[in-house]
Amino acid sequence: MYEIQGLSKAFGKVIAELRVKRGISQEKLAEAIDSTNVYISLLESGLRKPSLNATILIAQNLDIQPDKLVHAVTEQLKQHTVGKHES
Question: With CB atoms counted within 10 Å of each terminal CB, which end of the chain scores lower, N or C?
Fold first, then answer.
């Protein structure tokens, strides 16, 4: 089972990568989900846990299906966990 902190960091890394890849600023993403760039920054740094509603809105605005976003987060978490055990 994955730790919540690890999940938050993996989620943050994935949304940051998707956001940058799509050329969307934190401010634009925040505006699109009716939030603040501080919230997006905290999510991307793994310091906040997103609600289900926020996760769905973020996925929609990053043009990815929510299930694909969750899969990407799971894969990121597996990579981090594998790397951690190999050290």
Answer: N
Q: Which CA distances in Å does 1 have to 8, 39, 50, 78?
A: 14, 26, 19, 11
Q: Note the pTM of the prediction, 2 decimals.
A: 0.87
- Hey, is 63 helix, strand or coil? coil
Asked if 19 contacts 62 with a C-beta cutoff of 8 angstroms, the reply is: yes
Interatomic CA distance for residues 76 and 30, integer angstroms: 23
Q: How far apart are CA 80 and CA 66, in angstroms?
A: 21
Calpha distance 82→85 (Å, rounded): 5
Q: What domains sit in the chain, N to C, each tagged with a CATH number?
A: 4-86 (1.10.260.40)
